[in-house]
Write a structure and sequence with these properties.
By secondary structure, the protein is of the alpha+beta class. The chain has helices spanning 3-19, 28-41, 68-82; strands at residues 51-58, 63-64, 94-96, 101-110, 113-127, 144-154, 161-163, 170-173. Strands 1, 2, 3, 4, 5, 6, 7 and 8 form an eight-stranded antiparallel β-sheet that branches.
Length: 176
């Protein structure tokens, strides 16, 4: 194998690992399965037994049933997951502030035992496709403002997390 081939393979691996922030910790495969069962059981309200869900944090209404430590750990996951946007949605006509906000956390349960969290996070952003954006923040004043929003599943120990396949990053225009 030539040096060029090895270098290309390593570079490809580095790029692909940076594109997907998802992380598999201990028992990650089991958690992935539980999240899939939860998603299936909770397609309609109320969830089908033995699954249930409950909002445990909501930034907008300043509601929290989780500890500050758990909230910070989930925010770190959100920040890590948002790093992927540089290789996905932000390659298009969008510019973001780079400050990730944890918007909402739903605890999901099986037989009343916490199985994991479904988090939603976002960043203030602008659609730059129809304005004179020159790469400098001052030129955003004529661009449409909104938020880039995404969701992920997170294990209770925050060692395993992955993007919600139903809620990949999308841009939502700000309500006026």
């Amino acid at each position: 194998m030539s040096f060029k081939t090895v270098a290309f393979a390593l570079l490809s691996l580095l790029i692909s690992s940076n594109t997907f922030a998802d992380q598999m910790g201990p028992n990650g495969d089991k958690f992935y399965e539980e999240a899939a069962h939860f998603e299936n059981a909770c397609q309609q309200d109320p969830c089908k037994a033995p699954y249930s869900k409950q909002v445990v944090y909501d930034q907008r209404s300043k509601f929290s049933k989780i500890s500050a430590e758990t909230r910070e750990a989930l925010k770190k996951v959100a920040v890590d997951q948002a790093q992927v946007w540089g290789d996905t949605i932000l390659e298009g006509d969008y510019y973001s502030s780079g400050r990730t906000r944890l918007d909402q956390v739903i605890g999901f349960y099986k037989d009343n035992q916490l199985v994991g969290y479904k988090i939603q996070y976002s960043e203030k952003a602008w659609y730059t496709g129809n304005c004179d954006f020159n790469g400098k923040r001052e030129s955003l004043k004529n661009c449409q403002e909104g938020r880039i929003v995404e969701g992920s599943y997170v294990s209770p120990d925050t060692q395993t997390y992955f993007s919600d396949e139903e809620r990949y990053a999308e841009f939502s225009f700000a309500e006026k």
